[in-house]
Predict the structure.
Amino acid sequence: MVQATPFLLVLFLALGAHGLSAKKVQSGWDAQGRVGCTGGCGCRLCCGTSAEFSPLQCNLVGRWVNDLGSNMTITSVNANGAFGGSYHTAVTATSNEIKVSPLQGSMQKSPNQKGQPTFGFTVNWKFSESVTVFTGQCFVDDDGKEVLKTMWLLRSHVEDIKNDWKATR
Amino acid sequence: MVQATPFLLVLFLALGAHGLSAKKVQSGWDAQGRVGCTGGCGCRLCCGTSAEFSPLQCNLVGRWVNDLGSNMTITSVNANGAFGGSYHTAVTATSNEIKVSPLQGSMQKSPNQKGQPTFGFTVNWKFSESVTVFTGQCFVDDDGKEVLKTMWLLRSHVEDIKNDWKATR
Amino acid sequence: MVQATPFLLVLFLALGAHGLSAKKVQSGWDAQGRVGCTGGCGCRLCCGTSAEFSPLQCNLVGRWVNDLGSNMTITSVNANGAFGGSYHTAVTATSNEIKVSPLQGSMQKSPNQKGQPTFGFTVNWKFSESVTVFTGQCFVDDDGKEVLKTMWLLRSHVEDIKNDWKATR
Amino acid sequence: MVQATPFLLVLFLALGAHGLSAKKVQSGWDAQGRVGCTGGCGCRLCCGTSAEFSPLQCNLVGRWVNDLGSNMTITSVNANGAFGGSYHTAVTATSNEIKVSPLQGSMQKSPNQKGQPTFGFTVNWKFSESVTVFTGQCFVDDDGKEVLKTMWLLRSHVEDIKNDWKATR
């Protein structure tokens, strides 16, 4: 269903503002173990024989690309669900040169999430006076591919509290 | 401009959905050193003699209460702007018992923020299958009081990607 | 911890972005008949003796002022719930001179709304290339005063569909 | 003004929550005369010889289908930009039977919109106690096809103003 391609396979989706879909970048080892869960014994995360294992498993760790061409890497999630990573945006509301920026976030670890966890994270932009928060859920779609569905808010710095009303888009 | 009150003075504000104001809980030492910057020598953060120092300084670290009665404590901010803390909400969209929940976030540290930094954080709810992201800015208002202006998105878990469209409020 | 002040002082409060509260402008006849519903026989809208009349009744028609100082007048609501009016904003994201602008909207007329109807409307700005949509509910608060709770989206014109992602705040 | 078209060509797009793309239902004459403006003399709206005519022209009037499968018909726009129509949603947050519902809106008519106007409208749901507002822009995409890019807020009725904070998604 999902072949492990050694190079990047990137699909861009049309989407509305403030809503984003991100697809996992499928490279060798990454796809094998997880995406679509057809990998036999290597399928650590999703294919338990026990009934309490969910057949679906979406794992935030990895590299993601969204419909605007932005790239995100989530490096690890700790036992409490806290995670870090980096975000390389393809678009900007400023004229500054884009730089890779760090992100800090947190995901739900409860079994009630049934392998499709909700999460949120903050990107601290290194080339502008803004931050963006994303929140969403990691899904396994009908084709067995992992996909993130997120919404975001971009907060710009304003000099005066009187301008607060227009600082978020 | 701002007197350091030894006890708490907490005002609740009416506000619209998705926009929140939080006021800092002002106790002895906390207000002295920082709020309004009238504290003389103790005014570590804001009162440099050099022109490049801003007269305003809003510090995220501390305890905050918002207009709905929710309490938040931010314990520390590291050199990169990452911070942690806890959130005790006064309202919930579920019928579960409310529990204090951890938060992970990040703030801008650049001098261009002029002492009124933008920030974002994620609350990982310990009593529901949801997360909330907040983003906003820490302001010093006309009375010299520190105030947070934030917006939030609450993401609920859904079983099926088909219901993603209604999972965020 | 919080000292009780003997008299209420109710003014307009600063509030977070995207959420707005509007209070009805209380002038002679306007307040008499409706606000707080203490007007005796004149209390046409709220004080029926029949059990099927709700004790609460918030009427969109009238003049409203919100926390940013903007003024809105809703002139009439037809049998289907469609309404028109005008909006005089106190704030703008442009440098153009502010002009009063028309609005078009619609409210729920069902008895299930129990006198506190939900509604939405569009403001077609006469001094900028933008529109704003508001949606909210007309409430009677604990003091018997009519109050609108709304959220809004401001849509700016962009030249190219590639910039759509940043056109809404 | 818009006649029933013999053949529907409907494309569904993946999209994030709160952001929607809608494609115009493209049939014979409809596409010929307007979309992409390749239709020669029939090209009433877009192909003036005068320089002040924009080469792009997106017309709200017509039938639209979005990525969730919802259908919308905008019947006419008056001289001030006010318009009406109907909305047949494919998804609902309630368990009620879906019914076609009326919409009221307004669009920018200024030449500065360059044929790609911004607009907003309110849908007054006939099967639930809610309203939805949409705002967006009508674009001509790179293939010359008319497309709407919108964002929305869904407002539910709540019994008590204390629950206002969670009434909008």
